[in-house]
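Running log. JK asked me to keep both predictions on one page so they can be read side by side. First protein, sequence followed by its tokens:
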Amino acid sequence: MAIHASGAMSASSTHNSSPQAPAAHGTLAGRRIAFLATNGVEEVELSEPAAALRAAGAHTVLVAPEAGEIQAMKADVNPTRRLHVDMPVSFVRAFVQADKPIAAICHGAWTLINAEGVRGHTLTSWPSLRVDLTNAGAHWVDRDVVRDGMLVTSRNPHDLKAFCPAIIALFAKAPHRAAP
């Protein structure tokens, strides 16, 4: 799953399974954070970062390549719940080119490869992506969280305690524009 700030998402208040509206104040008050996910997203890798960002005051939105719902999973094989997609869109390459903050956990780094956003950066990910990231020009390291410029990456759900504070710090330091 990849997370993008300034937008990447807007929340739907009609579904308890998608990230919801933020607290009225906090480090990220007034910021909109998008979660880009697809069918098979590891539920905890979406729910915990979304809760941390909302607790910091962010407004979160779930985006996916197609409208409707996506299937969340536990341990990559056990279906948990279906999540409402707030908006269908793919904007990662534009965020990379504009040097906007982006966070990715586990297999989310594949999205960064496809967006041509890893060359010259140090990242971490699920270990099986190491070769793909290296071949795409990244320097891969095995750490719980890595920040390189406007990118924060993490390996898996066990790293969420380090990942959540790192993404809040990333998005808090990014330039902020009020939503229209």
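And the second, directly underneath as requested:
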Amino acid sequence: MENNKKEESLLNKKISRKDFFKSAAVAGASALVASEVFAKSRFLPEIEIPIGESTIKEIAEFKSVKVESNSDILIRMQAELKKALAKPMEQRKWKMIIDTRKCVGCHACTVSCIAENKLPKGVIYRPVTTVEMGTYPDLKMRFLPQPCMQCETPSCVPVCPVNATGIRPDGIVHIDYEVCIGCGNCVEACPYEHRSMDTGENYCDETPSVQPYELLPTMEYGKDWTREGKYSATEGSARKCSFCLHRLDVGQLPQCVTTCIGRATYFGDINDPTSFISEMATKPNQMKLLEEKGTNPTVTYII
């Protein structure tokens, strides 16, 4: 009887999901909830994403800044973003290329991502790892920023028991926080370990009071996800990078792209053969992480 009540509370999100994750007893109920919902998942509708003319975005042109042959690549990518948004969503396909030869390991992308998305303690969308390449004495050091790979065949999507995650027509793998039940299946399934659970913790939990900036809402997916009082609207949900979808929809490049001091991150519509991202996609020495997993990640690296 007690477990049934906990299951019902979880599904209705009427209890603190932070307490849910920290209680060992409820952890058992979590598995029970996930398995029961999974059995019913074939009756659940897929997340509906609008397509067609309604997805065309009219973005104002920056008349004071012209794209020239010697322009900063951010200027060109920004102009091409406007061009891509003038097409229906299903006609554009976002891609990111990271040039590891230019990355200096400053972690500006990591920090700016945390600030942009108001990420809580324990949630990082774009970690940067240090990788040794080659064999002694011919060794090289590379820094490897790792956002969500936005896979074309993601491992995280089919394991979700409630269809809370899916692939948009423009290739972005997204999460519906209002549908996610926090079972963690997708977190375990991701071979890149690029999903994490929002347990509702704050960086200032061990201090006398939570700071106001920790209660600021995040605008992910174009919605205002508030942090009312002690708890967050995203608490208990799986979270990950979305290529700053809320920025894209208003004509802005992902935050990590704009803050990269070495201009090592390229972004754009790969369906546009004249775009900078299409140009960079033809460059040699490119790799994808864990290709053997068959996920076909959209994010690629120049090494």
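Observation for JK regarding the second prediction: The first strand starts at residue 94 and ends at 99.
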